[in-house]
Design brief:
Number of domains: 3
Mean pLDDT: 84
CATH architecture of the largest domain: 3-Layer(aba) Sandwich
Shape: elongated
Number of strands: 13
Helix content: 25-40%
Strand order of the largest sheet: 4-3-13-12-11-5-10-9-6-8-7
Largest sheet: 11 strands, mixed
CATH superfamily of the largest domain: P-loop containing nucleotide triphosphate hydrolases
Structural class: alpha/beta
Number of helices: 16
Length: 453
Amino acid sequence: MMQAVLTLVITADSKQQLDSDTEKIRSLSGRCQLAVLKYQQIDGLNTVLPIGTRKIDAFRTLTTESLAVFMPFKVQEIMDRGGIYFGENAISHNLIMCNKANLLNQSSFRLGVPGSGKSFSVKEEIAFLILNTDDDILIADPEGEYAPLVEAMGDLGAVVRVTAGGKDRLNAMYMVDGYGENNPIVVKSQFIMSLVDRIDPKGVEAKHKSIIDRCTGDLYEEAERSGTVPTLAALREKLMEQPEDEAKGLALALELFTTGSLDIFGHESTVDLDKRVVVFDIHGLGEQLKPIGHLVITDTMLNRVTLNWKKGKRTHVFIDEFHVMFENEFSAAFFNSAWRQFRKRNAYPTAITQNVEYLLDSVQASTMLSNSEFIVMLNQAASDREKLARLLNISEEQMGHITNAPAGCGLIKYGSALVPFVNRFPSNTELYRLMTTRPGEGRFAGGQTCVKS
């Protein structure tokens, strides 16, 4: 048995009205035992006020079952000092405030079927980061969804639109001091192998690896002596100078990206990346070339993270359509290395994907997921739910929160805690109109279409 007291203050314009209101309240109280205070009105008022003092020495006995209606006995809460808002606890209805800095690692995943609210929740997090921190934010945007929000920020952000024949160019060979985990040439060679493997359907063989490694090392040595910046165009020329026929084949594979219509990655950069928020929009590349754009953007992000790390500045990295990075061996190896470097260099990487099944089929990707301390799971497909339950040790009751869940609702894994959440954003705001990707709403009204993620 437990005891509690409830004090009400009733006011009226006359004694007659006060007595009438009192009787009405007592008749509606049901089984609750209400009594009128006599000559203790001031003490009753002081007890009601939120000043933490109790002047009325009266208790009402409640059973544990009755009290549990008002105060759940087992509710996992997340309310970190300096945290970012991630919704409302579905059980206690308290705010969920997460500070990733308190976790063992800051790697994050956002998972959910199309229409579950993934991209909207990411934009919401970005908005809170802009308002509450001084951190830099980098976004890989394969569907052109993040540009409206960043463009509304004015000079604070920049949108880099990577498209064939476009004016925005990125140098795929650019490399800052400190690039890579150990030998930067090895990491850059791996990146070039990933790029060629995406370009050439025959793939990269042992001879190709040796040639790429040799030419990449020679190119950077010559560039250091001459004080120039290496480019893919210069690498192609270097390959053309080699005696092997395989080198000529590699040069031919790179022709499209150096002297062809997709030379946007083959020469020096023409964009200003020194903004607090940078969106890399690769929607214009088309489905076949998006994986290549993903690789170049990830490499560009790695350079920016390294520069910020040296300045003591934190960077948040958001990568949408994350699963495409694991469609072949070389890009998976390169991205796995980049993911580790993000974590080690004070960057908080967030991977976003709707194809959870493809992700879990990759040993590297599933290992990254299981080792991540922060995972936001929105509505999941049936096959994905089963795999996630096994991988993350989620109970059947908890899985109910990501089964046929409304948009914006789901389950958060925060360290060892699993917390169900509800996140409903007011739709009558300008911020909502900038962030929504629902056809017919916000920036996507008037017949425009968008792929929801």
